[in-house]
Amino acid sequence: MVRGTLRDTFHRWLDEADAVLVGAGAGLSAAAGYDYGDADRFRELLPALHRLGLRSRYLLGVPLPPDMMWGYWAVHITDIRYGTGANPLYRRLRELVGDRDHWVLTSNVDGLFARNGFAPDRIFTPQGDYGFLQCTTPCTRETWPSAPFLERILAAYDRETGRVRDPGALPVCPNCGGEVFPNVRVGPGFVDDAFMPTGERLAKWLSQFPLAEWLSHSATDRTAHATRTTHAGHTTHTSHPTNAGRLAKWPNHSATAHPADAPSPTHHPMAQ
After folding, report:
1. Are 126 and 44 in contact, with CB atoms under 8 Å apart?
2. Could you tell me if 250 and 244 are in contact, meaning their C-beta atoms sit under 8 angstroms apart?
3. Would strands 128-135 and 143-145 be described as parallel, antiparallel, or unpaired?
4. Cα angle value 188/193/197 (rounded, 5°)
5. Is residue 50 part of a domain?
6. Which of 96, 130, 92, 95 is nearest to 111 (CA)?
7. How far is CA 123 from CA 5, 79, 83, 107, in A?
8. pLDDT given for residue 213 in this prediction
C-alpha cells in the first residue's frame, strides 16, 4: 500500500466516523521523540550507565545496585513522564480527533495523551502510569505520586557516577517500609485498582457499537466507527483490540488500520 493511499484512507475513515477509539503503543511515543532505544539520548541522559556498556532505557532485569537503579528511574521518568511543553505529534492527533466521541486505549505509561489535550477520564492505561509508585509486595492497594520521591532522588543524584549519594533518598513503601517500584505492569504484583474502573467504562462505551457496525460502514444511519492502531511497539500488546479480549468483545482486527507496510514516523498520516 502506498503512503498516499494509506493517508487518504485514514482521513476518509476519520471523516466518516462518529466515534473514534485511538489505540497506541510505544511506537507513537518513539515517533514523538521518546524512543527507549535511542542510544544517543541514553548517553546524554545517563552517561555513567553508558560508560558501563548499556545503550538503551530497557533496563528491566539488569542487575544494578539500588542507588544506580533509582538514579536511572528518576532521570528516565522525569524525562519521559514529567517533561514540559506540548508534543507536536500528540497535539496533531488530538486535533485530528476533534470533537468526535472518542476514547484512548494505550499501553504507554508516559502520560503524553493527558498532557496533550486528551481527557484523562477517557484514557485507559492498563499497563499503569509512571506518575505513581507502588509497594512491590504489595502490602497495600494504595499507590503514591512518584514526583516527590523522584525530586528527592534527583537532589542526591551524582550524574557522573550514576549513583544516589544519600541512601535516605531511596524510596521505600510508606506503609511497610519495603521496596517500591513504578506502578506499571511487570508481574502479578501490579496494583491496577486505579486503572480498571476506566477500562470498565471503556468496555461499556464500546458495547454500544455492535460488531457489524465495526466491520462495515453502512449507508444507513448506523454509527460509523473508525479505529486506528497507532505505532504499537513490540514489548506490550494490550493497545491492540485483538489482545484485549478480557476487557470486552472486541471486533475482528481487520476493521483496524494496521498495515504491515505502515509508514515511518516522518511519513505518519498524523504528521501530514
Report:
1. no
2. yes
3. antiparallel
4. 125
5. no
6. 130
7. 29, 21, 19, 10
8. 53
Query: pLDDT of 219-263, one tens digit each?
Result: 333 333 444 444 444 444 444 443 333 333 333 332 333 323 333
Q: Which residues contact 163 (CB under 8 A, 6 or more apart)?
A: 48, 65, 67, 68, 71, 157
Count Cα neighbours of 206 within 13 Å in the Cβ-side half-sphere: 25
Interatomic CA distance for residues 25 and 76, integer angstroms? 18
Strand partners, 178: none
- Terminal Cα distance for the chain, rounded: 17
Amino acid in position 107: S
Q: Is residue 167 part of a domain?
A: yes
Specify if 52 maps to a domain: no
- Residue 199 belongs to domain spanning: 1-33+87-126+195-272
State residue 226 phi and psi, 5-degree precision: -90, 140
Identify the residue whose cell numbers are 519495603. Answer: 178
What CATH number should be reported for the domain holding residue 223? Answer: 3.40.50
Among candidate residues 124, 144, 110, 117, the one with its CA nearest the CA of residue 199: 124
Q: How far is CA 2 from the centre of its chain?
A: 28
Instruction: Calculate the average pLDDT of the chain.
Output: 82
Q: Which of 3-12, 33-42, 112-121, 140-149 has the lowest mean pLDDT?
A: 3-12
Q: List, in sequence order, every beta strand (DSSP E) within the chain.
A: 19-24, 101-106, 123-124, 128-135, 143-145, 157-158, 163-164, 180-184, 225-230, 256-257
d(CA 162, CA 170) in angstroms, rounded, equals: 14
Q: Which of 2, 11, 36, 202 is nearest to 92 (CA)?
A: 11
